[in-house]
Structures are given as C-alpha cells and as structure tokens.
Amino acid sequence: MDDPGLSASVLDTFLRLSLTEGFTVDHLRRLRSGGAPSPLPFAGVPPGSERSLLDKGRMSLDSPAAGDRVEAVREACARASIAIVAFGEREYPEPLLEIRGAPLVLYRAGPPWTGGVAVAVVGSRTPTAVGREFARVLAEELSAAGCVVVSGMARGVDAAAHRGALRGGGGTVAVLGCGVDVTYPPEHAGLRAEILEGGAIYSEYPPGSLPLPRRFPARNRIVSGLCAGVVVAEAPERSGALITARIALEQGREVMAVPGNPWFAHTAGSNRLLREGAAPVCSAVDVLDALGAPSPARDAGLKGRIIEFLSRKRHAGEISAALSSPLSELLPALMELEVANLVEKRPGDYYKRKS
C-alpha cells in the first residue's frame, strides 16, 4: 500500500524515474542540482552511462509511455498485494536512507521493515555440506537471539540462512534481483512461502522483472545496506558474496567471515577477507560481539533445568517440549551453555550435557 504521507505527484515522479533501471536517489539529487555527473558513479552503473541515465530520467518525467508503464506497475502491485515503498516514506527501511545508490522505490511482499539488529548471512551458491550447515545453524542462533537475518534467497548459503532463521523463530528478509512476484530459483517456491509467513521480500525491480545477471550485483548493496553487519559464511575467490562484503565496507558496515580450511578452494575468498581484517565468526556470540549487540538474555533458571534434563543426548525439539520453553527462548540458553563448555551440540540438533 502506498504511504498516504507522500503526495501522488511525488510518488508518480519517483516511479517514473525508478523504472529507468539503475536510476537511484543519487541520480535524482544530481538531476535536481543541474545534472552534473558524479566523479564516482554508483558501482552498478557502467562507466560513461551516468549522463545517459540522467537524460533518460528527464525524458521519463513527461513521457506518456512512462506514465502508462507506471500505471501498469501500480495495477500489477494491487493484484498481487505488493507494497510500493518510496524513498522518504515511513515504511522505507531506515538503514537504506544513508547508503550511496539508495533505491528510489522498493517493492515489498510481506510486512513492513520493523528495525532491530539485522545481519546478512551470505556465501557460495554451491557450498560444501559443512558450509551450508554452519550457515543454517548460525542464522538459527542469530534469529533466536533476536536478530533479523537478511540474505538473497539464492541457492546454497542464502537458502540455508533463511531456513535457519525461520527455525530460530525470528524474522528473515530476502532481497531479490528480480520482481518480488518471481520465484528464483524456481525450486525455492516453498522457501518463498515460508519467508512470507514471518518475514518480507524486497526488490527494487517492479513485478515481473526477470532475474537477469546484471541485477544481482546491484541488489547486493541493499542486502548489506539493510544490515549492521555482513557474515560471509563460505566463499571462493570469485563470489557474489565478496561483492557484498566490499560494498558493506564502503557503507561502513561490519564485515565478518567464517574461517575455512586454507587448502580448500571453496573458502579461499572468505579466508582472504579474514587476512584483510574481517572479524572471524565461529558462533552467533562472535557476531553479536563484533556488532556490540547485547548477548541473549541470561535465564539461569532455564539453563539449570536444561543441564538437569540433559542426562543423555536429546533433540532440541524434545527439550523444548519437556521444559515447556519455546525455541526462541531455548536456543539462546543452549548457545550460552555451549559457549560455557557445559553442553555439547551434536549433529542433527541434538544436545548432551558435558561431564
């Protein structure tokens, strides 16, 4: 739903300009100031094309064809219950207001951005089994600790991060390089539905936009821009996750990486980030410490009951049911007990008390 606080004429202008692909808030500011090109154009715009973007933007303001396209976009959003959120509206995510190349318009499926500590978990589309599982567990722990986990709904680490966040009981946000009504990759239709049950999907591209290769590097600035920090879970030397990490640094976000085997090509990129100064991450506690965020609330009573109950190996779901404690409360307590070396986590979400 469009924000009634923004005038219809301004929203129409923003929509017209945003449908010129690559046109951002920075371009609007230059258009208003006379159109002088910037010496450092946004990374998503090829060199030499910025003047062309400004000219296209000017033309769209009076173009009947652009007006027809805006109307078609509005109708498509209304049919699919997709919100149009323009820069400056109340529902526009506040963290994006400060980044370079902020999108003029976002399209959103699901509830509005609610704020809080947001962390991006990104990585390879073809991770190892260990890398995928670690990303899932890390996202689950972050979600249980109250963080919003943000990723790109791609194959591999992204999908694992979203699934982990959902298991942790918290919200998760996906940022797409296509329209929010387009399921990509196609096999993630079920994941998309799960995300929308408790989270949101954003894109700067209007409904029906196809997942073209050039759109994914551009969307990475939104993934990192929404967050206080970015965790690269596993990435080879050539990886879109490294683009996200570079943009995050430019945006002043914390960059973190999961250490990997130094002989393994799948982790060469994430290990390079560590050599360059990224904070190492081996648990959600490391992420919270790097961000200066409070650790999960300490519940000595619950932790004592957990220790007493774990006389043998038990599944997290079994512990939750037996102690009448929801996973959103149980998982942070288990995580603290792990860090304190009182509980050992076993494969498959099983836990056992240490002697």
How is this fold's topology laid out?
Layout: H1 8-18, H2 25-32, H3 50-61, H4 64-80, E1 83-86, E2 105-109, E3 118-122, H5 129-144, E4 148-151, H6 157-167, E5 172-175, H7 189-198, E6 200-203, H8 215-225, E7 229-232, H9 240-250, E8 254-257, H10 268-275, E9 279-280, H11 284-291, H12 300-309, E10 314-315, H13 316-323, H14 327-339, E11 343-346, E12 350-353
Parallel strand pairs: 3-4, 3-7, 4-5, 5-6, 7-8, 8-9
Antiparallel strand pairs: 1-2, 2-6, 10-12, 11-12
Helix pairs in contact: 1-3, 2-3, 5-6, 5-11, 5-14, 6-7, 8-9
Structure description:
The protein has a nine-stranded mixed beta sheet with strand order 1-2-6-5-4-3-7-8-9, with helices on both faces. About 3% of the residues have low confidence. The chain starts with 7 loop residues before the first helix and ends with a strand. Helix 1 crosses helix 3, helix 5 runs parallel beside helix 6 and helix 5 crosses helix 11. It is an alpha/beta fold and 355 residues long. 43% of the residues lie in helices and 13% in strands.
